[in-house]
Amino acid sequence: MGNKNVMVNIVIKPDGTEVEVPLLGDRFKHFDLYMDQPSLRFQLLNGWSLLKHLVPIIMFFRPGCIVEIGAGASTIYLARIAQSFKQKLYSCDKSPRKKVQYFKEHIFVQKFSHDFIEEFDDTPSVVLIDADHKYEVAKMEFDFFFEKLVPGGVVFLHDTMPPDEEYLSDTACADVYRLRQDLEKRTDLDCFTWPYTAGYMGLTMVIKKDPRGKYFEL
Predict the structure, then answer these.
(1) What's the CA gap between 148 and 109, in Å, rounded?
(2) Which class for 183: exposed (0-12), middle (13-18), buried (19 or more C-beta within 10 A)?
(3) Largest Cα–Cα distance in the chain?
(4) Could you report the per-residue pLDDT of 182-208, keeping only the tens digit for each?
(5) Under 8 Å CB-to-CB from 92, ≥6 apart: which residues?
(6) Handedness of CA 15, 81, 206, 49 (dihedral sign)
(7) Domain with 187 in it: what CATH number?
(8) In terms of domains, do 38 and 141 share one?
(9) What is the pTM of this model?
(10) CB-based contact 11:18 (threshold 8 Å)
(11) For residues 100 and 88, which has the higher predicted lDDT (pLDDT)?
(12) Buried b (16+ CB within 10 A) or exposed e, 16-54
């Protein structure tokens, strides 16, 4: 790596192989190290803590199933929440290494997202899109699930605000940031991106406006 104090994220490519992606950019300069390793504080903040706090609130007010495209560390959080609300969790990932069932109503689908979409027939409250980060693929996934989403439900998009241009490769964040930029211009949704969690690569929260809402809610 050249600089031993440069931390790395382990990124799993679509073919299942792992690559190290250095944590570059101003967003990482404040992180504390101990023996050249990230501290426990960094590891906790760098995880999916935002989902842990936000998804239960969304589920309480807008009940429905949970869908994740791209399984991983987020699956544990989503499984716990779905089980606590007695809702299904659909996890779609083509890698057999990701296959796991955390509770009875946890449905793992080992397929590409376009194949999963063809057979999906449910009404999600929360969707997490975090698989292929290419614009065209993420847009296809978003368009489908946003249409299925309950009014007031949320789609989360990962890797939408990378901290450095180095992350725009296909093995990292690719160009999914373009989808975030598209969504920020739309009036049928509310969109906000939080850059400081989920690997510090940007987590965009897209809320589907309820068309039945009053004029001051739209």
Answers:
(1) 18
(2) buried
(3) 57
(4) 999 999 999 999 988 787 889 999 999
(5) 67, 68, 69, 70, 71, 109, 111, 113, 116, 131
(6) negative
(7) 3.40.50.150
(8) no
(9) 0.84
(10) yes
(11) 88
(12) eeeeebbbbeebbeebeeeeeebeeebeeebbbebbbeb
